[in-house]
C-alpha cells in the first residue's frame, strides 16, 4: 500500500498490485504537501492549511489535528520512541511534536527561507 497527498486537499491510500484506490481521506482545507506513515494503520499529513493531521487510514478518519505553524506545512517525519513528529513549514520553522498528545514540544528557528524537507 502507498499513501499520497494532493493539491485537491485529499490523501489517497492505494493498492499498488491492483492499481486501485482503497480509501480517500478528506479533512484538510488546503493542498497536502507532506505525508508520513506512523505505523501500519496510522499516518500523518502536513498541509497548506497550516495543520498536521493524524489519520486512521483504514477507517479514513482524522483522529487528531496539530496546530501551531503560521504558514503551510511542507515536510513531516516521524521518529523516536516514544514517537515524535518533526514538521517543516513556510513560516521558516521546524516544530517538534509529541505524537501521543499532539502538543508542540519546541520550535526551532534559524532558517531564512521556508523549510522544505526534514529527516530523522
Give your account of this protein's structure.
The model has no long low-confidence stretch (mean pLDDT 98). 0% of the residues lie in helices and 56% in strands. The protein is mostly beta strands and 120 residues long. It has strands at residues 2-5, 10-15, 20-26, 32-37, 42-47, 51-56, 61-67, 73-79, 84-89, 93-98, 104-109.
Total number of helical segments? 0
Instruction: Please identify the structural class as seen in this structure.
Output: mainly beta
Query: For the CA atoms, what is the radius of gyration?
Result: 14 Å
**Helix amount, in percent?**
under 10%
* CATH class type of the domain at 33-109: Mainly Beta
Determine the N-to-C terminus distance. 22 Å
User: What is the ordering of alpha helices and beta strands?
Assistant: EEEEEEEEEEE
Major beta sheet, specifics? 4 strands, antiparallel
Number of strands: 11
Rounded mean pLDDT score: 98
Strand order within the widest beta sheet:
4-5-6-7
Task: Give the second-level CATH assignment, the architecture of the domain at 33-109.
Answer: Beta Barrel
β-strand amount = over 45%
Describe this protein with a few key phrases.
120 residues, mainly beta, Thrombin, subunit H, four-stranded antiparallel sheet, 0% helix, 56% strand, ribonucleoprotein
Task: Tell me briefly what this model is.
With 120 residues, the chain is mainly beta. The chain has no helices and 11 strands.
Topology (SSEs and partners):
Blueprint: E1 2-5, E2 10-15, E3 20-26, E4 32-37, E5 42-47, E6 51-56, E7 61-67, E8 73-79, E9 84-89, E10 93-98, E11 104-109
Antiparallel strand pairs: 1-2, 2-3, 4-5, 5-6, 6-7, 8-9, 9-10, 10-11
GO cellular component, one term: small-subunit processome
Keywords: Repeat, Ribonucleoprotein, Ribosomal protein, WD repeat
GO molecular function, one term: U3 snoRNA binding
Amino acid at each position: 500500500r502507498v499513501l499520497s497527498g494532493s493539491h485537491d486537499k485529499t490523501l489517497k491510500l492505494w493498492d499498488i498490485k491492483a492499481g486501485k484506490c482503497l480509501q480517500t481521506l478528506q479533512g484538510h482545507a488546503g493542498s497536502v504537501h507532506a505525508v508520513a506513515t506512523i505505523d501500519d494503520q496510522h499516518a500523518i499529513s502536513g498541509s497548506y492549511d497550516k495543520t498536521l493531521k493524524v489519520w486512521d487510514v483504514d477507517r479514513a478518519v482524522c483522529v487528531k489535528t496539530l496546530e501551531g505553524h503560521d504558514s503551510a506545512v511542507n515536510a513531516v517525519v516521524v521518529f523516536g520512541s516514544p514517537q515524535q513528529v518533526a514538521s517543516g513549514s513556510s513560516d521558516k520553522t521546524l516544530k517538534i511534536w509529541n505524537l501521543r498528545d499532539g502538543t508542540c514540544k519546541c520550535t526551532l528557528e534559524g532558517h531564512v527561507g521556508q523549510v522544505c524537507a526534514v529527516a530523522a
